[in-house]
UniProtKB/TrEMBL annotation:
Pfam families: DNA_pol_B. One of its GO terms (biological process) is DNA-templated DNA replication. This is DNA-directed DNA polymerase. Residues 287-649 form the DNA-directed DNA polymerase family B multifunctional domain. InterPro entries: DNA-dir_DNA_pol_B (IPR006172), DNA-dir_DNA_pol_B_multi_dom (IPR006134), DNA/RNA_pol_sf (IPR043502), DNA_pol_B_thumb (IPR042087), DNA_pol_palm_dom_sf (IPR023211), DNA_pol_type-B (IPR050240). GO terms for molecular function: DNA binding; DNA-directed DNA polymerase activity; nucleotide binding. Coiled coil: none annotated. It catalyses: DNA(n) + a 2'-deoxyribonucleoside 5'-triphosphate = DNA(n+1) + diphosphate. Keywords: DNA-binding, DNA-directed DNA polymerase, Nucleotidyltransferase, Transferase. Gene3D superfamilies: DNA polymerase family B, C-terminal domain, Helix hairpin bin, Palm domain of DNA polymerase. SUPFAM superfamilies: DNA/RNA polymerases. It comes from Halodesulfurarchaeum formicicum. It comes from the Archaea.
Length: 709
């Protein structure tokens, strides 16, 4: 099974891959289930008859379940509903039947496909390979109904009036009969149906049956101070949709990575494609809880236990970092603790029900003096298979030379990595289904102790730490000191800490970038050249600087990478400045393709709420003039054509004719990128400007300059 569709009558269609396409099985008997519990069973009994009489309730019965990880099995009311639509409608009514807080509901807010798999035991893992079909439509056409005059299907362009484009897309879907539609935007689906309705055509089939459903409308949200936008979600019968504008895991990994997590979480493919990291981690945890008869709270509440002032101070410290030694360092070695935070959880038995629990035997968290019960916790049980699987996948990838196999294994390893990365932070997330802030604090305390142990052992072995952050350490040989082999030291640190310290990479050199206008090192801004990169890895590793920032245009990013290559070859600033000057000359002469100067920025708020005339505001005014209103959290791409203006003439949008650009604006961006490359050598932005000013600019007229593509 690879796709689950709910029909309007509540029945469920299960789609399964076959050699000839797909088969469908209709389940008309499925009924979803939620649970009702109270600290005093008499409270539930008081309301039982009212619950059973509700028109959305099919039946009620008493079951024995655990309402939390620290609870033994207790009586709960198992409420079977008439259909999936009843869950969201009925849950608030049941929760408010008694006094506030008396009744608690469980297993309420599951995504629909995941709920079906969880409650019926059906696996959403496809038995064979899936056939995909990609469809891309320019964003400007997706946002304006009836303007679809261009689409690209598997790299083949289809153009014409909307009717011709509709026919071309449908013909290719019919011929390919895909299991998965990979769309540039899911809004393509209603747009195709809108065109068909305008022409009064018979119901069309983008899926394996006619019709489509809107699963959720678009929304704007804020997370950790960042505004995001969640596009509307759609479903078509018999085909999973991966919306590239609304997918984390497919964008960060590949189909193999997504399917690996489908198997671990039992979230169907389409749901997993749009799910967040925390959503998938929660699904994996929910499966573990279900196997242990633990119910999943609807609205989780976990009070924070009392702490002394000393504990509060220590608990608030976070991870440990060593300030980077600014400069260009040769013969550098990077060491990483393998999946440090997940391994701390596993080896120290950190789990919401073991931390500061009531137990007979325990261990003590350093600095915090929290007690951790020795009875095995559920969270280590969830994470240990993931840690082991990732290590095995990485070893398998290293052993194969098959490019396709390496790519698939890389996607799987990367997908698991994101789950492991999030498990630590999710313990401190207030809306986590299963989490505890004390567990989050304990993990940090162990991490600090481990990193300090590693530093002491490395320095004792003749290695100088030039940077360290949370779970990674960069070292270089101490001058005039004999070095103990790194293999011996890492083995000793592994034994002392219980977590493997891996030799990640050797670098010919690494440059740590200072913060702007200070000599202190920036924790996450560095670049360097690997001594022996893997076949599918770039020899140059870049972190934090402009070439890695999503708001950097292609031309500036390419320029910065070129400057790094020149620095690698010459190890001095003059040749780098020569290349910069040559590129700036071409920019000033208008010889750069404006398409390579497109900036992509996220919209922070509605146009009416902006109080200053920024570039984003100019771009939003231009999009509105075309009939499109972008929501907060969506991206807008444009070229700056005259940065001195405050009107919408300041920019040109992607998709508009791009013939000119503001050379001075992009020059500043280029100089800033060059400063990131040269600042480790002591050359700052003002020094670069001074150097460039020493050369007389020459105006070139009367001949044609070909533009860089």
């Amino acid at each position: 099974m690879f796709k689950i569709d709910y029909r309007e009558d509540g029945a469920v269609r299960r789609w399964t891959t076959t050699e000839d396409g797909a088969t469908v099985t209709v389940d008309t008997d499925y009924r979803p289930t939620i649970y009702l519990w109270a600290a005093e069973w008499e409270t539930v009994q008081t309301h039982r008859e009212h619950v059973a009489a509700h028109p959305n309730v099919a039946s009620v019965t008493v079951a024995s379940k655990r309402p939390g990880w620290r609870h033994d099995p207790q009586d709960v009311l198992e409420v079977t509903l008439t259909d999936i639509e009843a869950v969201d409608a009925l849950a608030p009514q049941l929760a408010n039947m008694g006094r506030p807080g008396d009744l608690r509901l469980f297993n309420v807010d599951f995504s629909r496909g995941f709920r079906y798999c969880l409650e019926t035991g059906q696996s959403p893992v496809p038995t064979g390979s899936l056939h995909t079909l990609s469809i891309d439509v320019p964003a400007v056409e997706v946002h304006r109904e009836g303007h679809l005059r261009e689409a690209t299907v598997e790299g083949e362009s289809i153009t014409g009036d909307p009717s011709q484009v509709l026919d071309g897309v449908l013909d290719r879907i019919h011929d390919a009969d895909p299991d998965v539609l990979v769309l540039s935007s899911a809004e393509i689906v209603p747009e195709l149906f809108a065109i068909a309705d305008t022409q009064e055509r018979d119901p069309i089939a983008v899926g394996r049956l006619p019709g489509y459903r809107k699963l959720a409308g678009e929304s704007t949200y804020e997370s950790y101070g960042q505004v995001g936008h969640s596009p509307a979600r759609y479903s078509v019968p018999g085909r999973a949709i991966i919306d590239r504008s609304n997918t984390f895991f497919y964008a960060q990994t590949n189909l193999a990575g997504v399917l690996d997590l489908v198997a671990r979480s039992h979230k169907p493919l389409q749901e997993l494609a749009w799910a967040s990291i925390g959503n998938v981690l929660t699904a994996i945890q929910i499966r573990a809880a279900t196997r242990r008869d633990v119910l999943v709270p609807w609205r989780s509440f976990r009070h924070e236990q009392f702490k002394t002032m000393g504990q509060l101070r220590a608990a608030d410290r976070g991870g440990f970092t060593f300030s980077p030694d600014v400069g260009l360092h040769e013969d550098v070695h990077e060491l990483d603790f393998a999946s440090m935070y997940p391994n701390i959880i596993v080896t120290r038995n950190i789990s919401p029900e073991t931390i500061r629990g009531d137990c007979d035997s325990s261990t003590t968290v350093p600095e915090l003096d929290y007690e951790i019960c020795e009875q095995p916790g559920y969270l280590p049980d969830v994470l240990e298979p993931l840690v082991t699987a990732r290590e095995e996948i990485k070893a398998e990838r290293a052993a194969t030379d098959d490019p396709e196999q390496r790519a698939a294994l890389a996607g799987r390893a990367e997908a698991i990595k994101w789950i492991l990365v999030s498990c630590f932070g999710y313990q401190g997330f207030s809306n986590a289904k299963f989490g505890r802030i004390e567990a989050h604090e304990a993990i940090n305390a162990y991490a600090r102790e481990i990193l300090l142990t590693a530093k002491e052992r490395l320095e004792a072995g003749g290695w100088r730490v030039v940077h360290g952050i949370v779970d990674s350490i960069w070292v270089t040989p101490m001058a005039e000191t004999d070095q103990r082999p790194l293999g011996e030291i890492t083995a000793a640190i592994t034994e002392a800490t219980g977590i493997e310290l891996e030799y990640e990479a050797a670098y010919d050199w690494v440059a740590f970038v200072p913060k702007k206008d200070t000599e202190a090192g920036a924790l996450t801004r560095y670049f360097g050249r690997r001594a022996d990169p893997a076949p599918d890895e770039s020899p140059v590793k870049v972190r934090g600087i402009e070439a890695r920032q999503r708001s950097t245009c292609d031309w500036v990013g390419d320029l910065q990478r070129t400057l790094i290559e020149v620095l690698d070859e010459h190890r001095e600033p003059e040749p780098v400045l020569d290349v910069l000057r040559e590129r700036l000359d071409r920019l000033a002469r208008g010889a750069v393709d404006p398409e390579r100067l497109l900036l992509t920025n996220r919209v922070g708020k509605p146009l009416a709420e902006y109080t200053q005339s920024t570039r984003n505001v100019a771009a939003l005014k231009r999009t509105r003039a075309t009939g499109i209103d972008l929501a907060p959290g969506q991206d807008v791409s444009y070229v700056v054509v005259d940065d001195s203006k405050t009107t919408r003439e300041r920019v040109r949008l992607q998709g508009e004719p791009l013939e000119d650009y503001d050379a001075d604006f992009y020059r500043k961006r280029a100089v800033r990128a060059a400063a990131s490359v040269l600042s480790p050598l002591g050359v700052r932005e003002r020094d670069i400007e001074s150097h460039l000013a020493d050369f007389e600019s020459t105006s070139v007229t009367g001949w044609t300059v070909s533009r860089e593509m």
